[in-house]
């Protein structure tokens, strides 16, 4: 029983990790309708920024987040403004997706050029210390990641429902043409949303950096599961991504122990396929709309 | 314009070839850019130092050796660069390659052209397993790694833990690409032959971000000795999560990769990695009476590159290149058949090279005397502890 609870706790913590990466991804997808293949590289950039700030200025990684989050917001906003936006009028919207693939490769090789292929270790500042929660043990840093993921979900819901900017973002997502008629600057909304999505993963990167060493390819480790989580939760649903992430985390940990680590990916993707067959729009689907297709 | 350029080049080549008596060209095919650049470059430095030493002593058959670099950034380019070295640069043989997949791709080209290919650093079985006529390998392989790990458990680890080898519960974990899978396969095979009790063999993707369930599984199966074959990310993850889950097996033995690299030790902390064992190419903290020439190699390296060697790759490439070039020096001419005959005559006993192992090509042109060594992390340093003739420290286990 004790082992079961420990695995469950490991699974939830792993889920928190997936969630904090996936939230920004689903936000960008839901609103801007762009599948951002460079999302993992945004994470990687954030982790290297955290590494530089913590080693260069001797900051606690969580304090470094105060600089990393705005930096990633700017990176995201610039990506939308100068890479995606010029392609909005392209004949085929898939061009935008390929542009993000290109950005991903470019960022990865840039990191390779600057930092080399070796790993970079962010000082841990005590967040790797263990916390005993009843019968289970987890890392302090893992708890903070889970707390941050929950806070991010609640904060984003509040922002979207209660603020003028949030309402404008939702309006643009629901019907771009109608939003434009209401006087909303849709291009600005897209730039801001892309920035917010990147800022979310910026927060994630500052929290993850002390737990995992940064390397040019670190983003690819996280991003495949993040895509699974986003589809599972219902494309564009922030809360869905969170619960999808926790579910995948638990399935991953359980199958790794009870079935064997060779098969855990097979189990995770098997369950993913079964859920998609039973509920094709994901667990928490938002209403489908095609308004982004119209000019 | 293009034609003139071509003609000029041709003229210059003819001129060079005409006035040749003074130089012979060899290819150095390594990944010099991209993901594998760091250790590709490190490997190439070993070959360069060997060439410098040979040239200082009068070259091969009186001719100066010129190394022409080819950048094997990926498999396709490895093939393209091998073609270029052979047909445009007119190299007499190719040295390489560090990466097994690049080596397998490029050596096919050399084989078809009938140009000797000397592999000095790639470990996969398939490199020599294909029965090529012109491919020779000087370095130890995945099979040697599995064999050495099992030998070390039987001879040294079991006695240190105060148990009979057959009483130890062995757990094999490995990243699931061809590198991890083939080493784990050899560990299993040699382990069974030696009568070891292997309780579990588990693969996982190298890109994994969590190994806590695997750690719990090993812990609940009461594994005494963990064998891991891994890259850097997963080495760090396993060592950290094992220590955090309070899993303290009698011994952890890594197979090269992440286990031999200083950044891994820095990532997990010296207290966690202390006592962890590793089997890999010869490293630098070793008894130099068993590896004559090692100190001179390090001095030459530091003089040329202004830093200490970053890994054992340069040393192993140096030893391989020295053996091959010295043999060609004793041979007749640079025709492929002449070179092959010369290298087949190599017979260097153990304890006479800077890496310790001897050189003699056996079945499939694999160096049958190639050997890995056992190291242990002690106070933040990787110290050779096995075999006894190379050891500079005692293996410390079971405290």
TrEMBL record, chain A:
GO MF assignments: transmembrane transporter activity
UniProt-annotated location(s): Cell membrane
A GO BP annotation: amino acid transport
Annotated keywords: Amino-acid transport, Cell membrane, Membrane, Transmembrane, Transmembrane helix, Transport
Membrane protein topology class: Multi-pass membrane protein
Family designation: Belongs to the binding-protein-dependent transport system permease family. LivHM subfamily.
Matching PANTHER family: AMINO ACID ABC TRANSPORTER PERMEASE PROTEIN, BRANCHED-CHAIN AMINO ACID TRANSPORT SYSTEM PERMEASE PROTEIN LIVH
Name by which UniProt lists this protein: Branched-chain amino acid ABC transporter permease
The species this protein was found in: Paracoccus alkanivorans
Lineage of source species: Bacteria, Pseudomonadati, Pseudomonadota, Alphaproteobacteria, Rhodobacterales
TrEMBL record, chain B:
SUPFAM superfamilies to which the protein is assigned, alphabetical: Periplasmic binding protein-like I (SSF53822)
GO BP terms in the entry: amino acid transport
Leader sequence segment: 1-22
Domain Leucine-binding protein: 23-380
InterPro entries referenced in this protein's UniProt entry, alphabetically: BCAA_transport, Leu-bd, Leu_Ile_Val-bd, Peripla_BP_I
Keyword Transport set for record: yes
Gene3D superfamilies: 3.40.50.2300
Pfam annotation, one family: Peripla_BP_6
Record key words, sorted: Amino-acid transport, Signal, Transport
Protein's name according to its UniProt entry: ABC transporter substrate-binding protein
Source species: Paracoccus alkanivorans
């Amino acid at each position: 029983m004790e082992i079961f609870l420990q695995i469950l706790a490991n699974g939830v913590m792993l889920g928190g990790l997936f969630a904090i990466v996936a939230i920004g991804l689903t936000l960008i997808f839901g609103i801007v309708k762009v599948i951002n293949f460079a999302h993992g590289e945004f994470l990687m950039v954030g982790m290297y920024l955290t590494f530089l700030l913590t080693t260069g200025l001797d900051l606690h990684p969580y304090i470094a987040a105060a600089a990393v989050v705005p930096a990633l917001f700017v990176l995201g906003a610039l990506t939308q403004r100068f890479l995606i936006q010029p392609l909005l009028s392209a004949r085929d919207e898939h061009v935008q997706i390929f542009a993000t693939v290109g950005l991903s490769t470019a960022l990865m090789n840039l990191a390779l050029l600057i930092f080399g292929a070796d790993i970079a270790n962010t000082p841990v500042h005590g967040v790797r210390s263990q916390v005993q929660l009843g019968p289970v043990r987890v890392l302090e840093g893992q708890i903070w990641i889970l707390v941050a993921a929950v806070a991010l979900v609640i904060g984003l819901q509040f922002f979207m429902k209660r603020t003028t900017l949030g309402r404008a973002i939702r309006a643009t997502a629901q019907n771009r043409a109608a939003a434009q008629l209401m006087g909303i600057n849709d291009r600005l909304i897209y730039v801001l949303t892309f920035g917010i999505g990147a800022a979310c993963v910026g927060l994630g990167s500052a929290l993850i950096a002390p737990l995992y060493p940064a390397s040019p390819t670190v983003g690819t480790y996280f991003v495949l599961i993040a895509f699974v989580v986003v589809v599972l939760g219902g494309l564009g649903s922030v809360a869905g991504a969170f619960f999808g992430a926790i579910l995948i985390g638990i399935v991953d940990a359980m199958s790794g122990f009870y079935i064997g680590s060779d098969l855990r990916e097979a189990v995770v993707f098997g369950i993913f396929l079964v859920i998609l067959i039973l509920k094709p729009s994901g667990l928490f689907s938002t209403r489908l709309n095609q308004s982004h297709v119209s000019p | 314009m293009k034609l003139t350029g071509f003609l000029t080049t041709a003229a210059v080549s003819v001129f060079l070839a005409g006035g040749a008596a003074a130089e012979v060209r060899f290819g150095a095919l390594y990944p010099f850019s991209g993901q594998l650049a760091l250790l590709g470059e490190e490997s190439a430095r070993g070959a360069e130092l060997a060439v410098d030493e040979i040239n200082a002593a009068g070259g091969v058959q009186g001719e100066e050796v010129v190394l022409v670099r080819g950048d094997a950034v990926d498999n396709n380019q490895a093939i393209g660069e091998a073609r270029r070295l052979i047909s445009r640069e007119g190299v007499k043989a190719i040295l390489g390659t560090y990466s097994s997949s690049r080596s397998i791709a490029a050596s096919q080209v050399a084989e078809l052209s009938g140009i000797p290919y000397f592999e000095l650093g790639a470990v996969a079985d398939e490199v020599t397993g294909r029965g090529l006529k012109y491919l020779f390998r000087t370095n130890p392989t995945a099979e040697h790694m599995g064999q050495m790990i099992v030998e070390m458990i039987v001879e040294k680890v079991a006695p240190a833990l105060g148990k009979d080898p057959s009483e130890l519960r062995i757990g094999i974990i490995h990243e699931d690409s061809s590198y991890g899978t083939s080493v784990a396969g050899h560990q299993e095979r040699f382990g069974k032959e030696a009568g070891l009790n292997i309780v579990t063999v588990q693969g996982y993707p190298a890109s994994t971000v969590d190994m806590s369930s695997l750690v719990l599984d090993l812990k609940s199966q009461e594994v005494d000795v963990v064998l891991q074959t891994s890259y850097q990310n997963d080495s760090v993850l396993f060592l950290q999560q094992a220590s955090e889950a309070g899993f303290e097996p009698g011994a952890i033995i890594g197979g090269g990769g992440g286990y031999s690299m200083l950044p891994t030790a820095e990532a997990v902390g010296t207290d966690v990695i202390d006592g962890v064992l590793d089997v890999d190419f010869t490293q630098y903290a070793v008894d130099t009476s068993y590896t004559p020439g090692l100190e001179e190699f390090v001095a030459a390296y530091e003089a040329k590159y202004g830093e200490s060697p970053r890994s054992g790759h340069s040393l192993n490439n140096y030893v391989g290149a020295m053996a091959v070039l010295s043999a060609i020096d004793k041979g007749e001419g640079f025709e492929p058949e002449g070179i092959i005959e010369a290298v087949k005559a190599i017979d260097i006993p153990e304890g006479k090279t800077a890496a310790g192992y001897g050189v003699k090509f056996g079945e499939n042109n694999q160096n049958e005397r190639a050997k890995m060594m056992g190291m242990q992390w002690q106070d933040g340093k990787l110290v050779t502890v096995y075999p006894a003739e190379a050891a500079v420290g005692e293996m410390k286990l079971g405290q």
